[in-house]
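Quick one: sequence plus flavin-adenine dinucleotide SMILES, need structure tokens.
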Amino acid sequence: MDVLVVGAGPTGLMLANQLVRRGVRTLIIDRHAGPSLETRALGVQARTLEIYSHLGIVDRALELGKRGTGGNIWADGQRRARIALSDAGEMVTPYPFLLILGQDDNERIMGEHLRELGSSVQWSTELVSLTQQADSVAAVLKLADGSHRSVLAACVAGCDGARSVVRESCGIKFAGAPYEHVFFVADTEMTGTMVPDEVNVYLFRDGFHLLFPMRGKDHWRIAGILPPPLRNKADLKFDAVIPSLRNEAGAELSIKSCTWFSTYRIHHRRAMRFRDRRCFLLGDAAHIHSPVGAQGMNTGLQDAYNLAWKLALVVKGHAEAVLLDSYEEERVPVAQALLNGTDRAFRLVVTDNWFAGLLRTKILARLAAFAVNRKAVQKRAFRTVSQTGIRYPKSFLSKSLDGLPDTTPRAGDRFPWLRLKFAADGPVEDLFHKLSDTQFNLILIGQPLLPEYVFNFADDLVCVHAIAKDAANDDELSRAQIPQPSFYLIRPDGHIGLCGTRLETGELITYFAENLYLNTTRAHHVKERAATSG
Ligand SMILES: Cc1cc2nc3c(=O)[nH]c(=O)nc-3n(C[C@H](O)[C@H](O)[C@H](O)COP(=O)(O)OP(=O)(O)OC[C@H]3O[C@@H](n4cnc5c(N)ncnc54)[C@H](O)[C@@H]3O)c2cc1C
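Reply:
Sure thing.
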């Protein structure tokens, strides 16, 4: 077996899907008897939908979910601001909204797709221990009947949540602390002042209530902080939080039913390393934080997308193992920034002294009202929350060659979403539909194609797209601040690996051979041929 994926939550399911479709022999296990039926995470961000689109499951997700196109901030019984997500993200992504779709539905869609690919989760199978050897990892699994079985895998992916056995077996510290606050979540049917189909945030002196529209009429997910007197009460029921809800969300609130209520203490923690030799940590096994901003599930899915193409190249012998170092190098800063950001946002909305209360109800609400009229502020906020703004500029895989202006997309950025003509008399097409996410994509703008043999060193590894000279293309490129001539080598996960003005054959070969550690013998052979042919 190539990869043992431990845990079939959203992160493990995404990783298994990505590995299996790349032809990697994968075993995915979970200690539970079947999929979780709890909604838990609700917000699917635009970047995740872009990944779902490549995986072929975005239509199913859009059909089942509800599009949250705006957010409303309430304080002192009045609506203080409305943030239009669709305006802020309109030219950034095909999905300029927050899709409200429960974690259980996301897991079901990914599980079904995995079965369509010919694989499936092995339930009731628990990782008990693992031992790393020079060329493999030996894992002991406990099966449904209580018996134990040993398996060997080239690599192990720890997608096994906050109490990760993979992380503990590797001796990796999970540094951080719990918050003193206790969160509650409730799935309800109710009516009130909420703007339908949009996210509604009620800020008040002692905290906040977040209301997400769910599928079906008058169905709302409420998330908030338990009032301090309720924090340590056992067997708490939804009825206990209704008075505080009524107080803050207004007397108009009429609650008809509650189908799920749960409380949980949240932590902010990060694994000090995301890799120990042949073992990797992803999702909640690597980082946990407050749910403010709906980032948790989405970040795990992106960890998986970042690691999958690299693991596939390495286990299939197309790249050397050093490529895998870039996983930790790229994803640790993302997790750290997320922990810092969610911690700041969380403290702002929960700190319970009088000044913080004033800040929340008076200053924060006014700041939000001011910000909604500033397009640049909205755009920046959308890029951060939707995760389309995640960049890896310091990664050793990111190389921007001289000659490009500073304002242009740079190596490490997610390549922007563009609509372009690929043939002079052809239609305008969505670039993201043209990009392959199981290959590298080379975009050539305002320059001739390279000779065919240049790409022979890496069979089917690079898909070339020449952008036609056309007035509409010129407008679209200048909107994205992409100069002509220029070229962009885009990694399978959509981030720019190499970019520059005019592409020389040697630069491409050197990038693959020396930075991606790909197929070096053949790459050097082609490099020599390029040198002798001038
Ligand atoms: C009540 C609640 C509400 C939440 N609300 C939100 C929200 O609104 N927004 C948001 O972004 N996030 C939210 N979260 C967090 C979100 O659910 C997590 O970020 C997300 O589930 C992480 O996915 P994961 O796949 O990394 O881990 P998990 O979903 O924890 O999956 C880990 C899997 O590994 C399995 N496993 C564990 N140990 C082993 C083992 N030894 N062997 C085999 N299998 C094992 C488990 O059974 C589990 O299925 C919420 C969490 C909770 C608990």
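The chain has a mean pLDDT of 88. Residues 325-350 form the longest helix (26 residues).
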